[in-house]
């Protein structure tokens, strides 16, 4: 398991089969309702949403600032036989990377909070506005920052994955600043190679503990500063940027958003 590679870790962390089965019908219904034939997935990461959209016969761009993540996206696209246009680019650059406006822009996986403060959000939304025509669709999906700030939530549920290459625990810890403007995320990953547990019988376990009391676990940490984006801020800035028909959902079953309870928020808006 290449535990030092963020892109590989991401595809281990996410159970993509379950996630896309849950989220796919939501996007398909939205796209059908709005006549979407082309999509730019911004902050596309390893490209799995973009690959799903491509499988529906849509014209798809996967845009992300990280070359490492795009490398994984290219590998995934090749594995699934997807014809996705994979492009390196950051927030504020999307419209300049597209040959023409697309019918929809999506930004999922908690990518949007990587903008640089409220001004960064405004630049990103203005860019999204330029990237779609009048009536074009924008779909955002991120953690519910209102709940994190109001309830002083410090963690999200840990994730354990058992793979052929080994075991991995993924932990995420959150620390809002005093003014509630930024949230520091610590991404902590514990990895144990499969060889550590393979073939250990009752007699081998004591020797293994003597050789390595840590149990063979390796630790890696990565810190990321996110801009706090509660739903009321998002709605206000979307409307100021020229988006209307703003709808908030708490899950991909179109259930109404509950600010104090839902872990995430899905924001759907239309360019006026």
**Whole-number total of structural domains:** 2
- Terminal Cα span: 47 Å
CATH class of the largest domain: Alpha Beta
Rg, nearest Å: 20 Å
Give an account of the 3D structure.
The protein is α/β, with parallel strands linked by helices. It has two domains: 6-144 and 229-271, Rossmann fold, CATH 3.40.50.150; 159-226, no CATH class. It has helices spanning 6-13, 16-33, 48-55, 67-80, 94-97, 117-131, 145-150, 194-197, 204-211, 231-240; strands at 38-42, 59-64, 85-88, 104-107, 137-143, 159-163, 166-176, 182-193, 217-227, 243-249, 264-271. It has a seven-stranded mixed sheet with strand order 3-2-1-4-5-11-10, with helices on both faces. The radius of gyration is 20 Å and the shape is globular.
Topology:
Layout: H1 6-13, H2 16-33, E1 38-42, H3 48-55, E2 59-64, H4 67-80, E3 85-88, H5 94-97, E4 104-107, H6 117-131, E5 137-143, H7 145-150, E6 159-163, E7 166-176, E8 182-193, H8 194-197, H9 204-211, E9 217-227, H10 231-240, E10 243-249, E11 264-271
Parallel strand pairs: 1-2, 1-4, 2-3, 4-5
Antiparallel strand pairs: 5-11, 6-7, 7-8, 8-9, 10-11
Give descriptors for this structure.
single chain, 272 residues, alpha/beta, Rossmann fold, 2 domains, 7-stranded mixed beta sheet, 4-stranded antiparallel beta sheet, 10 helices
């Amino acid at each position: 398991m290449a535990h030092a590679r963020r892109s590989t870790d991401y595809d281990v962390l996410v159970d993509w089969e379950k996630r896309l089965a849950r989220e796919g019908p939501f996007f398909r219904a939205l796209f059908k309702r709005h006549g979407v034939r082309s999509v730019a997935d911004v902050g596309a990461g390893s490209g799995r949403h973009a690959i799903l959209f491509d499988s529906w016969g849509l014209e798809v761009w996967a845009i992300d600032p990280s070359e490492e993540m795009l490398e994984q996206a290219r590998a995934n696209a090749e594995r699934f036989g997807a014809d996705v246009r994979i492009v390196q680019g950051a927030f504020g650059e999307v419209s300049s990377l597209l040959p023409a406006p697309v019918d929809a822009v999506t930004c999922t996986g908690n990518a949007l909070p990587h903008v640089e403060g409220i001004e960064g959000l405004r630049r990103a939304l203005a860019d999204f506005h330029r990237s779609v025509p009048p009536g074009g669709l924008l779909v955002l999906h991120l953690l519910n920052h209102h709940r994190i700030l109001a309830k002083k939530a410090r963690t999200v549920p840990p994730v354990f994955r058992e793979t052929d290459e080994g075991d991995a625990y993924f932990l995420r810890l959150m620390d809002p600043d005093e003014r509630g403007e930024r949230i520091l995320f610590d991404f902590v990953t514990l990895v144990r190679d499969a060889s550590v547990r393979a073939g250990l019988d009752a007699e081998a376990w004591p020797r293994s503990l003597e050789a390595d009391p840590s149990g063979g676990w390796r630790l890696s940490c990565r810190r990321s500063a996110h801009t706090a984006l509660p739903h009321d801020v998002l709605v206000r800035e979307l409307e100021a940027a020229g988006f209307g028909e703003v709808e908030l959902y708490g899950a991909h079953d179109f259930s109404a958003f509950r600010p104090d309870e839902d872990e995430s928020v899905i924001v759907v808006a239309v360019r006026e």
